[in-house]
């Protein structure tokens, strides 16, 4: 029996955690803007944000390579200024996971924001509260279940990210090999005990997230 | 004091309204969708008008020409929303104190406690809004709006969410509280009784326009147009033309009726509309001598239908010999004791009088 290498689990948790943090900050802001602001090009931005949800991950990975690859727009700039290349690093995996998980978070969060009765925010305005204060004391507290549910979904999606990650971060054991890739590798190499363990961990995480989701989905009672 | 003169387009809807109010309660009255709530939102700064000017107290809060548009936060307007818009995740005390965020905690608590006493909400401070009755929720909403010391109070259908049994009681309470506060108040309502009992003056809205601004009795008894007459329950509204002008009267013919009305500035041949409220149509007792005044617009006919509503009855009266295809010509409102006394359950053939002074021409 081969020794179990837990690095992929550790890396996946780190990548998914960071990706969730990135999607939470950007996704919540985007969701709020889509739910509450009117601006030109709004429907275009709404569609663009959702694009990673429908594009095949490999297509998405290709686009990411175009942007952050050695010859890519951002990639070349980074390499020339800092001598740093993003491709085939675990940071690239974070970027790939963030991009695929943002749409899920935006969708759930936008719905949660839209579910907050606007007259509550209007009431707060007439009472002299600033827009930021209203966001923090009215909108977010009333929408937090939806936001949390969206975050859980985003985390699950980031944890399972395979295609785009493989394209931009590669499959370097001990460096960029995340769990889904390690599972693929283990199955290919006939390492059944490792595949079983990793599959078990991923399944347990998925079930846990679904349980959290179910609790959050129940009707809010104040 | 408030001055409003604004125009606003919202999708296919156009709002154009102008009125002023002093230290009084003015009702914005009209059917749903007439633009009353939108007017309140413009005044509070929640919706930006396209053109015009709004002055609250001495302060210009909106002036399209001068580019002035104060945010709602700076308008000092107490707004009681239609469904109260209480924050469901905060307690009663937190809701009431929500607009006092600039005060020190101690001061805030004191003000909240004061308002809790004024609104008789003692013992409910730590409850959540959804644990309160409709009437209590309403008082919390009032308390919250009043704590900020508003220069203007806006009430959007504050009684519509309550059942009728407690409505009239709460109206009386509201009147009492407001009379002590001496604050300019605008009340949006589609309920005539509410508009009349609570306000001194009324602004009548329809389809985004102001049809009439006036003292409540003037609106009720001297409607400016057919729509106002209809909204205020004049019921008996006719179209016709002036056939004779005398020193003290007009004679009008319309829809088969010939009536005498007070002298209005009209000429022979002018097309007019005229109305008489159902409670002003007088049933003439056959055992009494008829005075000259009731003889003026004396009509004979028959009660063809009636609806009893407990405290009285609505009679539908068909004028004899009037072949106009209508199944009744007049609605008559009589209190229950009159209904009994005149034995209306049995006697259906009557003469009625549309007393000249009660006929309004517009």
Provide the descriptors you would attach to this structure in a database record.
A: 222 residues; 10 helices; B: alpha+beta; Rossmann fold; 2 domains; six-stranded mixed sheet; five-stranded antiparallel sheet; elongated
* Overall outline of chain B: elongated
* Secondary structure: helix percent of chain B: 10-25%
Tally the helices of chain B.
10
Strand order, biggest sheet of chain B?
A: 7-8-9-3-10-11
Helix/strand-derived class of chain B?
alpha+beta
The protein's oligomeric status is heterodimer
Largest sheet of chain A: none
CATH architecture of the largest domain in chain B: 3-Layer(aba) Sandwich
* N-C termini distance of chain B: 31 Å
Q: Count the strands of chain A?
A: 0
Count of helical stretches of chain A: 10
How would you describe this structure to a colleague?
The complex is a heterodimer of chains A (222) and B (362). Chain A has 222 residues and is mostly helical. Chain A has helices spanning 7-36, 42-54, 57-68, 73-82, 90-114, 118-126, 131-159, 163-169, 179-189, 192-217. In chain A, helix 9 packs antiparallel against helix 10. The longest helix of chain A has 30 residues, at 7-36. Chain A is globular. Chain A starts with 6 loop residues before the first helix and ends in a 5-residue tail after the last helix. Chain B is of the alpha+beta class and 362 residues long. Chain B has two domains: 2-230, P-loop containing nucleotide triphosphate hydrolases (Rossmann fold), CATH 3.40.50; 236-361, no CATH class. Helix content of chain B is 25%, strand content 36%. Chain B is built from ten helices and 21 strands. Chain B has helices at 36-44, 92-96, 105-118, 134-147, 164-181, 192-198, 216-221, 226-231, 292-295, 336-341; strands spanning 2-10, 13-21, 25-29, 51-56, 59-63, 68-69, 77-80, 152-156, 184-189, 201-206, 209-215, 236-245, 249-254, 257-262, 271-276, 281-284, 298-308, 312-319, 330-335, 349-354, 360-361.
């Amino acid at each position: 029996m081969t020794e179990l290498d837990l690095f992929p689990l550790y890396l996946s948790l780190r990548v998914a955690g960071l990706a969730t943090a990135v999607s939470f900050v950007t996704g919540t802001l985007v969701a709020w803007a889509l739910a509450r602001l009117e601006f030109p090009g709004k429907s275009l931005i709404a569609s663009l944000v959702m694009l990673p949800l429908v594009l095949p991950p490999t297509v998405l990975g290709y686009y990411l390579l175009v942007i952050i690859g050695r010859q890519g727009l951002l990639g070349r700039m980074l390499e020339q200024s800092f001598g740093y290349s993003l491709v085939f690093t675990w940071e690239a995996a974070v970027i790939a996971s963030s991009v695929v998980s943002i749409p899920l978070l935006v969708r759930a969060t936008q719905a949660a924001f839209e579910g907050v009765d606007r007259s509550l925010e209007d009431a707060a305005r007439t009472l002299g509260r600033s827009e930021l204060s209203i966001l923090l004391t009215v909108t977010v507290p009333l929408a937090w279940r939806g936001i949390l549910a969206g975050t859980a979904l985003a985390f699950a999606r980031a944890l399972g990210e395979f295609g785009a990650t493989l394209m931009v971060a590669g499959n370097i054991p001990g460096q960029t090999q995340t769990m889904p890739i390690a599972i693929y590798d283990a199955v290919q190499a006939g390492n059944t005990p490792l595949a079983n363990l990793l599959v078990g961990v991923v399944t347990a995480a998925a079930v846990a997230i679904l349980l959290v989701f179910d609790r959050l989905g129940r009707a809010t009672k104040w | 004091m408030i001055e409003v003169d604004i125009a606003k387009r919202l999708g296919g809807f156009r709002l154009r309204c102008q009125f002023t109010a002093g230290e009084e309660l003015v009702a914005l009255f009209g059917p749903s969708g007439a633009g009353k709530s939108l007017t309140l939102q413009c005044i509070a700064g929640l919706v930006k008008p396209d053109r015009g000017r709004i002055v609250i107290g001495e302060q210009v809060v909106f002036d399209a020409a001068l580019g002035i548009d104060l945010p709602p936060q700076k308008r000092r307007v107490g707004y009681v929303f239609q469904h109260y818009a209480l924050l469901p995740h905060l307690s009663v005390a937190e809701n009431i104190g929500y607009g006092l965020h600039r005060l020190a905690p101690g001061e805030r608590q004191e003000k909240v406690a004061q308002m809790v006493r004024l609104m008789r909400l003692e013992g409910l401070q730590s409850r959540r809004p959804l644990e309160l009755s409709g009437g209590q929720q309403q008082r919390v909403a009032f308390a919250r709006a009043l704590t900020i010391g508003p220069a203007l109070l806006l009430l959007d259908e504050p009684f519509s969410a309550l059942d009728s049994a407690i409505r009239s009681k709460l109206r009386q309470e509201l009147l009492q509280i407001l009379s002590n506060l001496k604050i300019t108040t605008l009340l949006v309502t589609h309920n005539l009784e509410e508009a009349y009992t609570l306000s001194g003056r009324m602004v009548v809205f329809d389809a985004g326009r102001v049809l009439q601004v006036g003292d409540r009795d003037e609106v009720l008894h001297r409607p400016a147009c057919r729509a106002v007459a209809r909204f205020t329950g004049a019921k008996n509204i006719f179209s016709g033309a002036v056939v004779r002008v005398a020193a003290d009267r007009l004679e009008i013919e319309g829809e088969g009726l010939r009536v005498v009305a007070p002298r209005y500035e009209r000429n022979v041949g002018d097309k007019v509309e005229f109305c008489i409220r159902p409670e002003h149509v007088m049933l003439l007792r056959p055992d009494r001598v008829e005075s000259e005044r009731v003889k003026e617009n004396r009509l004979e006919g028959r009660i063809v239908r009636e609806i009893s509503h407990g405290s009285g009855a609505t009679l539908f009266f068909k004028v004899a010999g009037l072949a106009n295809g209508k199944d009744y010509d007049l609605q008559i409102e009589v209190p229950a004791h009159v209904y009994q006394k005149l034995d209306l359950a049995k006697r259906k053939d009557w003469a009625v009088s549309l007393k000249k002074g009660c006929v309004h021409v517009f």
